[in-house]
């Protein structure tokens, strides 16, 4: 790798006015290099099962391998791909591995990838209709297609006065909803009343809602994480919500926004939308957002659609197609009942963007539905996913993951050393190794938790599977989320073998050492 | 196209449990389809000069062509690519066309595209170091490379206690800076003081700063667009800033944030950073962000670096690699002096993300430097751009655009019917057709503006070039921004011919009709 040692050559180049040697977008060179990268990635998918799923590198590994400065001259793609193999791949945690069961999946697919390629290749900046009409109109159409697949009520369709928009992530979507709700409330209450507004979720709600509230200037004391209980399977209880709201009202505060979750991150709990929306309706100006980031995808299957019953009373709804819907990162699908509320809070109309399309009032200018001005042609990838696979296959694909999770759950349930901690709802199993009698004092939650921390680390350090954890109700549990696109039945079976082997080893090593001592150390 | 007519088949599929027919990520099918799309895009770049640059479709054109619902069964890629050619391409405004001179460029390249492919293909979700160490570490390294290329002071390098981050867009970057500044101020003043905070820009500052202020809950009355003048070439005058600040302080308000711009959207004006930062320093807690979204790229050339002199006194700096740096959308490069301020305002630490990497305190968790939790592996494309072209070629590429803009400026200056409205600084020429004596009353700005509105519309309706407009100091001018990757000298020459021809026609048609009437109608 050459590197930029000095600027000695700068003036030479500047005065010589040397022509750019090869056009950076020469079609034939693009073709040649594009084919190389396709082959590189096809080989990556072919081999990805061989790599340790969780990267095994130490902090700072890459600085030791790469130069300190950018090269002064061009380097061939062959060299760069070689460096990716040798230097980058070891630092990758392989979300595309068939043995990836961590967090929630990032389920890319051929169609999702090709859609991103087409979007990136055409490279339009679709901030308003005029800047590339097809980008806006395809998004309108695809969001209506998806709304029908999810049986969302007509108030969320464009024809019903609502509409859908592709955000990058749920965080952005929730932030936009919250800002719309905030400004709708402040229009009524007065702009100086921002410190009275309160945002509600549960102690299981994703951290993005608290972050969105922080960004939107909601007073930090005014975010309520209403406690959930094991009796409610860690879902938000409508009575608990009402009690929290009433308490705030009594203190002179104003309930602004509720984020209800369908498929929480820790345990895929389902907040009861109907009951929660009924509570919110009693405080007429509250905005209810339904965050179905993970589980929304499953709701295209009739047998799971009940999870979002009640959404017809909500103000906005979102799910991430990049999680469990074969669409490569990033793609958050959001629908709103009242697009005007978003537009009032987020629109800007500088002179240099004035155009006939906007003035016709017949078009959507998506810049006013999101944080940023610039936006990618994301609907292209969703369109490719929907058409390349079709609704029936998409449903079967999701069902296949649920079936695999059920298989894993059966394995766990059949092994008396383990327990399923919370009931499985979709394709994630939350389980833990039980403390063997005599080894860990009964009732010692912390020691039982430590046992599972060690099991998790042992599994992940093996590189043969990757799982992550959560703590609900004080119980540390291992989350086993099926959803990576390449995962097949045999990978789930292998993961269970890995878990069992490490559990056996761990229990043996605990028995052979002091039964109390080692288990209290955090690894 | 098949369509989803009913759910009659749902239960059949559900009970049959039909296996997914082809894996959505089968490596060989990925390879076959990937090669097809590469060829499709290579052909697109080969032919893009033939298409009307600005799409000529009418609102609603696409709904008439596409079905109302997603297909139930899969459709072949061949059919989808055919539909892109027939239905999508006509609705595309071709930002990749060599005759695209509108807004600012969206300068994709082979390397930028390939980097996005690799990022999308590997498809990691790099929210923290642990989730894929290479994604974070490569971003650290590449941002330091770029900081050196821009000769940013060491306070913005990781080694100097600062650091760089890739945001999607400038809007997101500014929002993060502003929220960090806001919370730093409110920690000092008290959380209930948000309504006293004031944000400053000029009347030429990009609308994203006002939008960021809105989102962050800054009182809508507290955004100051300080007026600029032609005498200052529409840059923000430090004395005018000081006067605005002092007036606010006298009213009991608190100056919070200044956004200074290097290369404004309307006319590429350069705010004098040194003078402005000195003013801000007198109000010690003010945060100064330097928005060089467009012009920052040019600052890798020694002859343009002076445009950001004074940045060493700023708190944050950003430019868009997706504008004029061969990096496909989206990629905003931002550096901050005090990452801790971002982290304090934007961090979240849920249990399910706890990990050894974070606890080691030796790593960056970029989720705490941005709005969203999820993030793409954007550094991959920047790394490919820097290595594939090298610093010397990148500079020459930018210089080539500046030279072409200079050529266009020379053409305009040599034609007495036209004038260059503001001095050219980078690769954009702001010009207008002068009102011919006798045709439009002297001093009638609105009629002169109308003449240029018509000229712009005629040029764009021809499909042979695409330009957009701005209004500064009441003067409507046509912006001619060179920067599309495929643009060569001959395309600039052709664009000038198109402008001249339409000007000739327009002046002739004005002369042959009522000299007063038609020119006051807005087209």
Automatic annotation (TrEMBL), chains A, B:
The keyword Lyase applies. One of its GO terms (biological process) is amino acid metabolic process. GO terms for molecular function: carboxy-lyase activity; pyridoxal phosphate binding. CDD domains: DOPA_deC_like. Gene3D superfamilies: Aspartate Aminotransferase, domain 1, dopa decarboxylase, N-terminal domain, Type I PLP-dependent aspartate aminotransferase-like (Major domain). Coiled coil: none annotated. This is Tyrosine decarboxylase.
